[in-house]
């Protein structure tokens, strides 16, 4: 088993009811497994996923590196990893 810390930013704090959570996963689990375990309600799933993949406006980082929608199923998590979930920010 590995332990992963998940940090929520902006409105995701309201959606998930926390600033951060610690999750226990099987060793070798992918980021996609963590996200599926994390999204327990239909509202949470609809805020993160769209058509089997990540919504384009959701940014997910693992240990400070942005994970693309194409790679979230292949990204393996290690014990002590920090996953950050936040909405894409715009500016100008």
Describe this entry's structure for a reader.
The chain has a 5-stranded mixed sheet with strand order 2-1-7-5-6. Strand 5 and strand 6 (65-67) form a beta hairpin. The chain has helices spanning 12-16, 31-38, 42-48, and strands at 2-8, 20-25, 49-50, 53-54, 58-62, 65-67, 82-87. The chain has 92 residues and is α+β, with helices and mostly antiparallel strands. It is globular. The protein has one domain (2-87): Ubiquitin-like (UB roll), CATH 3.10.20. It is built from 3 helices and 7 strands, in the order E-H-E-H-H-E-E-E-E-E.
Number of helices: 3
Low-confidence stretches: none
Instruction: Give a quick account of the main beta sheet: strands, pairing sense, barrel closure.
Output: 5 strands, mixed
What would you call the structural class?
alpha+beta
| Oligomeric state of shown chains | single chain
Q: How large, in whole angstroms, is the Cα Rg?
A: 12 Å
Number of strands: 7
C-alpha termini separation:
44 Å
Shape: globular
CATH class: Alpha Beta
Number of domain modules? 1
Tell me, rounded to a whole number, the average pLDDT: 92
What percent of the residues sit in helical stretches (DSSP H or I)?
10-25%
The run of helices and strands is: EHEHHEEEEE
Query: Which CATH architecture would you pick?
Result: Roll
CATH superfamily: Beta-grasp domain
